[in-house]
Amino acid sequence: MSSAAAAAPPARSRPTTLAEAREAMRAGEGTGELLDLRGGGTKAGWGRPTDPVDRVVETSGLDALVHHDPADMTATVGAGMALARLQRLLGERGQWLAVDPPTGPGASATVGGVFSAHDAGPRRLAYGSLRELVIGMTVVLADGSVARSGGRVIKNVAGYDLCKLFGGSMGTLGLVAELTVRVHPLPVASVTLVVPAEAREATRAAIALAASPLGPTAVDHDQGELLVRFEGAGASRLAERARGVLGPEGQRSAALEAQAEDDRWAHVAQGEQALEGTTTVRAATLPADYGAFAERVRREAGERGVGVELGSHVLLGLHRLRLRGPVAGQGEVIAELRKSASVTVRHPAPGLLEHVDALGPPPASFALMGRVKRALDPKGRCCPGRLWGQLAGGAR
Amino acid sequence: MLPSGLADALRAALGRDGVVEAEAQRRTYEMDGLTGYRETPGLVVLPRSTAEVAEAVRICARLGVPIVPRGSGTGLSGGALPRRDGVLFALSRMRRILSIDPVNQRAVVEPGVTNLAVSQAAAPHGLYYAPDPSSQQICSIGGNVAENSGGAHCLKYGFTTHHVLAVEVVLGDGSVVDLGDAVLDPPGYDLRGVFVGSEGTLGICTKAVLRLLRVPEGTRTLVADFPSPTAAGDAVTAVIGAGIVPAAVEMLDTLAIEACEAATGAGYTRGCGAALVVEVDGPEDGLDAELEAILAICRDRGCEKIRVAQDGAERAAIWRGRTAAFAAVGRLSPDYYVQDGVIPRTELGAVLARIAELAAEAGLRVANVFHAGDGNLHPLVLYDAGVEGEAERGETLATRIAELCVEHGGSITGEHGVGVDKACSMPKMFSEEDLAVMERVRRAFDPDGRCNPDKLLPTPRLCGERPGPYRPHPLEAAGLIERL
Lengths: 396, 484
Prior knowledge:
By secondary structure, chain A is α+β, with helices and mostly antiparallel strands.
């Protein structure tokens, strides 16, 4: 296996066709050339960094809208298509890919990158994650195998659902070249209620909403406020009913629409974006445990002089932390929280990963994951080290 | 044919009543819902726990015996077809609902629990389990996980994979592994997502963590009569294009209506070209407005008559008619094949016209029942096995229809699975390279090939040496064009 000389900058490939992608992947199979697979690079800091590689394969040349059938509500896109650009193209036909990852409107995040990192935002509550909206996929494995899975129809159980396997694989199984997705009509109306609430109250209110028949499309806790979003023709009527569910505070809540609403949600997204000198962390618990989790976070951080901002997609049970201050203390906070939650580092502050692992202990199915990794990438070439290095079977 | 010592070892592990040995009793497991394929299993085991499943699998692994899992046996692709040289794992004794967490809207159940039992247990909390295959009174959660089952309401609510958060699995070597988690997004690969829909070829599901949903506040159900399936299909596209996501959209053609009425008297209009069943659900606010919008679209597309269910009983009757469609066709014909192809919804008119031509050429009748919202067709090919050559013509026609769906950009199966029935059709849809990659994933889970062999992927044993006629176009082989 090649050793990726640390000093030499890696070679670059930017395929523009599937045939070129196949060639870029296969060319170094004989020598065991190590590969980094990159979309927009917006999540390069997530989790464990990729080990030094010999070649970077960029998907930015695979950026075509291959097919969009508004009547069938499906679209096929090159994985390197910027998500923001895809949303503009679909928007011209009154549709969108119903994902809202916290990458910001100007970001270069690609559809393939969002998929491979399994990134998602608040409206996952209503629409699912991109992994659930992908209905077909073309991947190129390290040995040049081009494999398709799924198809162009929403309902399809022919063969294994390899889309699930590659969604969230962080590029470690092969190059995602093309995706076929289910798209949705743009909502005709949207309104967001804003209710002042601390974490425990926010949790209670969110659980009450989940037990109601109202079906909010997002329920978030951010900066001491509970945000409750409704979309569709009945949005304002549903928001009015939600005020009753939310109690006295709910009756006094503000209702945001249009630009003010967009701005508020953009602020939520900023909570997960990289910010110099800070660490962003993703934590997961059962939804009802958010209040208790928030108190634990404040206690553990306070004891160690670590500053913390906390927010949550409450009903998904997915929480976001931004930590500031001494990295050793940040590491201790993360390690402590892992006793009762699944915690992964997204954008680490410099030096943090010397104190704590980005992903935490491998899951129970780690051995099986390693077998899958070695079945698809037997030489361990794709994004080495990005998940747990031992997946590839070596000592890394 | 079975290795000596197998029955003794299984009896020692599971007890005398945990192993079915008598030929007559074994024969009761010879088929699942696809009755054309039958094989008496070598042995049947009836484990009561994960530990018993694991122990029995370890015994089979040690002696090199293939295993086939079975839930309630309602599958329609022969996925639970036993092997004479293998052990059938019937999971019907593992039917406990282990917990319901109404606050976090989750349930933990054993694989033998029926689909409907989960919703019944959740009902006191105002919750239910969304996937609703037509067989939901009988079919098991373990079977649903294996097949990634759908149902009439998956257009809005998704399939089994969207509602299963985690599974406990016994792999082919007898090891027990948890895939996924009750908490979202455990780090690493989504092996849960690969396992759901793997048709028993990657292991045996012994426990599942399910997501429950709040029961919708209101429901409106209507039946609209159209002069033709094409006109009805256009109305479906217009409804969905208007931003309405119906909970269900079902269509029956003239022949299917005839069968349903003969069987259930559900009130469909005999003789009309196509009946569309549309259901919307959700908060009461806005439901009537949605209903009005759908009615306007239907009238605009040539609808001849509309009936809106006035109460729960009328709604139930409409659904009883639809759900009984397969069985009702038995009144029209002694035998029939059910197909399960999927097409992009907009291809509906063209595909139905072609199916009619193919049926005429074959001299057979085809009744069409389908999930029109997501393009999942269930053509029922009617034949009489007593008439010389009709069974063969029927099978050929059914296969031809599945291929037609692929030619129109669709799939050979939307919810019934590949099983043994469509394994040899997989090369119509996937290239050898695609299938080779699926095989690599299969071997990662099951290196020795013990789990439900000869299902899902084509094998020489099943399909001959060169399965299917798929040959990639040279441009496709070069990666310059694509077929999906």
